[in-house]
Design goal:
By secondary structure, the chain is an alpha+beta fold. It has a single domain (4-165), classed as Electron Transport, Fmn-binding Protein, Chain A (Pnp Oxidase, Chain A). The chain contains three helices and twelve strands; from the N terminus they run βαββββαββαβββββ. It has helices at residues 21-30, 68-75, 106-120; strands at 4-7, 34-39, 45-50, 53-55, 58-63, 78-83, 92-103, 127-128, 133-134, 140-146, 150-155, 160-165. Strands 1, 2, 3, 4, 5, 6, 7, 8, 9, 10, 11 and 12 form a twelve-stranded antiparallel beta sheet that branches. Strand 9 (133-134) and strand 10 form a beta hairpin. The protein is globular and about 55 Å long. The relative contact order is 0.24. The mean pLDDT is 95. Residues 22-151 form the Pyridoxamine 5'-phosphate oxidase N-terminal domain. Keywords: Oxidoreductase. This is Pyridoxamine 5'-phosphate oxidase. Residues 1-11 have a biased composition (Basic and acidic residues). GO terms for molecular function: coenzyme F420 binding; oxidoreductase activity, acting on the CH-CH group of donors.
């Protein structure tokens, strides 16, 4: 699905152009680590780093049911995932905004388990249990999908801010 792309001139060099969605999507696919921001039940923010995969126009992550991020998503599914270069003069930083939805379909989970192992190696091998990932060394992980509503891109060097909005 192709989003609506907009350059925000207020935060861009005068000669900057909007970053193409294909470039942002490629970075979302290639990034190794991401930061997930959720909101605790009492309204305080919670941010943590994690691994994720981009597949089928969505970003996926997993977590144990007892972890803070899973508990936060029980009461408020809205979240943001970020990734980027953490440098001042080069790279593209991205913020994906959307609502996290549990993935429980066995076929989808199998495809995602394969994607995790392909991206991160055999240390990240998951089997599929009853609506969850299972790890050979024990434990279960809930899997979440975030279909972007909005993505923000901050390109450094030729400084620009691009937003991509998705209609559902």
């Amino acid at each position: 699905m192709e989003p609506t792309t907009k350059l925000d001139a207020r935060f861009s060099d005068p000669t900057a152009t909007a970053t193409p969605w294909a470039q942002a999507r490629e970075q979302l696919e290639r990034a190794e680590t991401y930061w997930l921001a959720t909101v605790r039940a009492d309204g305080r923010p919670h941010v943590t780093t994690l691994l994720a995969v981009w597949q089928d126009d969505a970003i996926y992550f997993c977590t144990g049911a007892e972890e803070q991020k899973a508990r936060n998503l029980e009461s408020n599914r809205n979240c943001a995932l970020t990734t980027g270069a953490s440098t001042l003069h080069e790279g593209l930083d991205l913020v994906v905004e959307g609502a996290a939805e549990r993935v429980t379909d066995p076929g989808a989970l199998k495809s995602l388990a394969d994607a995790w192992e392909s991206k991160y190696g055999s240390a990240w091998h998951f089997d599929v249990g009853d609506g969850v990932f299972t790890h050979p060394q024990g434990g279960e992980a809930l899997v979440f999908q975030v279909r972007p509503v909005k993505v923000l891109g901050f390109r450094k060097g030729e400084y620009s801010q691009t937003s991509w909005r998705f209609s559902r």
